[in-house]
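Checklist before submission:
- one chain only
- standard amino acids only
- sequence pasted in full

Submission:
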Amino acid sequence: MKVAILAPVAWRTPPRHYGPWEQIASNIAEGLIKRGVDVSLFATGDSITAGKLYSVCDSGYEEDRTQDAKVLECLHISNLMEKAGEFDIIHNNFDFLPLTYSGLIKTLLITTIHGFSSPRIIPVYKKYNSSGHYVSISNADRSPELDYLATVYNGLDTRHFEFNDAPDDYLLYFGRIHHDKGTAEAIEIAKKSKRKLLIAGLIQDENYFKEKIEPQLSPDVVYIGNAEPAERNKLLRNAYALLHPINFNEPFGMSVAEAMLCGTPVIAFNRGSMPELVKHEKTGFLVNNINEAVEAVNEVKSIIRQDCRDWSESQFSCDKMVDDYLGLYKRVLFK
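Returned file contents:
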């Protein structure tokens, strides 16, 4: 079986810091290669893979702002589609634009929908509904207007996350610094809980950071910047709990699965995919507001950290994800 994995070209695959779609594309590609599948990765030129690498740019447009994002995306997607006949399956991890080529090629296309940036993109998915072979990353993140092959949860390389049963006493916020992700709410929860908060992540909204976050920084509320993988593992495994007070219906939530792999319980607002990721009162707490989150902090001591590791490893591992996708490839190829 020859498989082409299409990653975005905003960041390197796998990313150095931020880049969840690139990370999952990498995990799929490398997992398939370990199974003996012939894999070609279409990504930035500085990407790392054990398979064949095809690129139209040396680095991503978020890392080299002299490049035009739309031009790069068009060149990138066309580079794959002009080679489509060389593959049995194209696995699209790059949103809706590649679908517009799908009627012009004979190769089967599977599209993992990593979230909807806006309802306005759904007409493209609807047009290719009968041939698009869509996969959702959670049951919560599905459009009723679309048909789906399956839900396949994002899979993580469990070796990169070290279990720790003797954490420190700080709370952790790990994610984009943006209103959607609830950075300000995490600060309020930590202050009311009288616990130190460490904040790690990419500043995606500069105004939000300057107006809502920066004025509240102190010895007890510390922004430590974007964390590289080794620092990420250290922060997650040593945290007393991860705070995830999201203000939107999040499609998945990588940091939630990552924290639990380290044994760290998660306190999350009960929205989007969170009920699928967090087992309430078993691997963390699903809450509806800041006050409930504060109460949950006081209850974290009841969580067995090994249960967090076991649950996340059983549901959100690379091995499980790759097995699920291999099953879907065979299903569409041999139906």
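Reviewer check: The longest strand covers residues 108-113.
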